[in-house]
Amino acid sequence: MRVISYNLRKHRAATELVALVGEHDPDILCLQECDTTDLPDAIDGLSLVQATSGNRLGLAMYLRSNTFRVEQVRTIGLKKSLHDRVLKPAHERVLGARLFDIDRSRGLIVASFHAAPLTALNSLRRNQIRAGLDALQALGPELPVLMVGDYNYPVFKESLGQTVREHGYRLTLSDDHTYTRYRVFRGHYDFATSSGFHISNITTLPQGTSDHRPILVTAEAA
Fold first, then answer.
1. What are the residues whose beta carbons fall under 8 Å from the beta carbon of 169, sequence distance 6 or more?
2. How many separate domains does the chain show?
3. What is the pLDDT of residue 63?
4. 157 lies in which domain range?
5. Rounded-to-integer distance, Cα 118 and Cα 195, Å
């Protein structure tokens, strides 16, 4: 299974999606910071599963409908940072779907995730990650879970990795930095947390018009 995750930087990189999907042929596309009122129903063979509706800029997911059947979709609001309370950029920070792999006759859960911005504490983002994973597991207990997206967590990943492991999940980074706009903030912002998946690699794709680089996750349910 090939999953692309991309933060579009306030929808600026939306014009790249057709070429991105055409070149890398993902099975699933997870987006963050997309204008949910300006999304097509399909992108080069991928069908829109759902987009969040709480704010204009939000999350969306596309997939190959001849590969997966959508059984349930859930948008999830998480604990808010001060930035969220004052500026109200987003309420729904997880968009998850329970899917049925038609060829392999098995269920799985995939989600697009966008953590609170860098103005928030790492402890809040850790809380959001744990709560998001718990809510996704409730979609299908014992099913494999893969949550990809913008974690806004450039430093102290050892602590995050330990937290995730204690929660029964695995943190997997990509092969290169994903945020490059400001030198002081460069790092791995976009990555994956998972349970029940073998992730063979996460490739950081070339820079586009977004301040984030897209990532391509190659994974297989265990």
1. 133, 145, 193, 194, 195
2. 1
3. 98
4. 2-221
5. 26
